[in-house]
């Protein structure tokens, strides 16, 4: 599970930072999931080592332009790039209406299926390996955060030990790998968990932007391996944050602390903290680390691998 930042600026792009977009790479599924799609995201794909042909799901937090203006361009380019599978898009009310308007007025025709899902708090997607949960944030328009939760996996199955116990290969191995009980023809009962190593605990990634500090973000981020949280303003500009319903560096750190996450990554920075200004982004990082030491600062094309944990139970 690898995160690649394709845009880390707020509001408008700068020379070194594009507007919001984060890609989640799922190697075992050969899939990419995208979170927000600011203007120019398709260019950011081209500058990265990500394959747009693997894009399968897009999750939109809210309807502000710096999070959606790249959506139509990216979708249109995907069709021109060759054979594409269906892309599912998840987002707030009006997203479907917005896309339909873009399609109608630009006379764009996709060569692959596109399905839009209007989200509500709760589980919005689930398969055998992952669950995606949506939670409300607090912004000027309806906004949602997302949590991708990988499901736990059984530990490595000990084939040699199974063979030494006289268990024939085949369907029984599948049951044992899942930790189930089986009964052999001679009456012996074997518990699959005894033939598997420690459980591989599912990893979790949480994305919260745009929002001021809110309990919704804390609830969504509980015990997450990685929390990516907006940090538009420095602490001394808190009044701007309250006026515009954005977060300061210290608010992001407070969410991470309250939710007991393992790692906080700041993003969505105001251009006002560019090099040469009185306050710079390093100051925001220092402010956040004073509250939550396990904090880092994202930049465009930064990749972060979420490591797998092994259960002690």
Spell the H/E element sequence. Answer: EEEHEHHEHEEEEHHEEEEHEHHEHEEE
Characterize the main sheet. Answer: 7 strands, mixed
Rg: 22 Å
CATH superfamily of the largest domain: Ribonuclease Z/Hydroxyacylglutathione hydrolase-like
Q: Can you name the CATH architecture of the largest domain? A: 4-Layer Sandwich
Mean pLDDT: 93
Q: Find the count of extended strands (DSSP E, 2+ residues).
A: 18
> How many discrete structural domains?
2
Count, helices? 10
* Class inferred from helices and paired strands: alpha/beta
Helix-residue proportion: 25-40%
- CATH C-level of the largest domain: Alpha Beta
CATH fold-level label of the largest domain: Metallo-beta-lactamase, Chain A
| Spatial strand order of the main sheet | 6-5-4-3-2-1-17
Please tell me what the overall shape is: globular
Sheet-strand content, in percent, reads 25-35%
Instruction: Report how far apart the termini are.
Output: 23 Å
Keywords: Endonuclease, Hydrolase, Metal-binding, Nuclease, tRNA processing, Zinc
Function: Zinc phosphodiesterase, which displays some tRNA 3'-processing endonuclease activity. Probably involved in tRNA maturation, by removing a 3'-trailer from precursor tRNA.
EC number: 3.1.26.11
GO molecular function, one term: identical protein binding
């Amino acid at each position: 599970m690898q995160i690649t930042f394709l845009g880390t600026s707020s509001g408008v792009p700068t020379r070194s930072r594009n507007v919001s977009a984060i890609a989640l790479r799922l190697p075992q599924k050969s899939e990419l999931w995208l979170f927000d799609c600011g203007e120019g995201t398709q260019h950011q794909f081209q500058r990265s080592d990500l394959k747009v042909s693997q894009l399968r799901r897009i999750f939109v937090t809210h309807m502000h332009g710096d999070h959606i203006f790249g959506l139509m361009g990216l979708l249109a380019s995907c069709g021109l790039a060759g054979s594409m599978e269906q892309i599912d898009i998840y987002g707030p009310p009006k997203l479907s209406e917005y896309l339909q308007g873009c399609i109608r007025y630009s006379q764009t025709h996709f060569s692959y299926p596109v399905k839009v899902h209007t989200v509500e708090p709760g589980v919005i997607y689930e398969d055998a390996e992952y669950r995606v949960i949506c939670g409300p944030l607090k912004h000027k328009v309806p906004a949602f955060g997302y949590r991708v939760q990988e499901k736990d996996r059984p530990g490595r199955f000990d084939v040699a030990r199974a063979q030494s116990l006289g268990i024939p290969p085949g369907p029984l191995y599948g049951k044992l790998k899942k930790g189930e009980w089986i009964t052999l023809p001679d009456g012996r009962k074997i518990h699959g968990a005894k033939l598997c190593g420690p459980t591989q605990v599912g990893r979790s990634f949480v994305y919260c932007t745009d929002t001021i500090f809110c309990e919704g973000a804390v609830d969504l981020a509980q015990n997450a391996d990685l929390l990516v949280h907006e940090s538009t303003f420095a602490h001394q500009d808190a009044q701007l944050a309250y006026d515009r319903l954005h977060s300061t560096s210290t608010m992001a750190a407070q969410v991470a602390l309250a939710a007991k996450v393992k790692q906080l990554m700041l993003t969505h920075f105001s251009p006002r903290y560019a090099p040469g200004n009185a306050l710079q982004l390093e100051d925001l990082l220092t402010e956040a680390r004073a509250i939550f030491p396990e904090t880092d600062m994202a930049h465009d094309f930064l990749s972060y691998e979420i490591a797998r944990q092994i259960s002690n139970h």
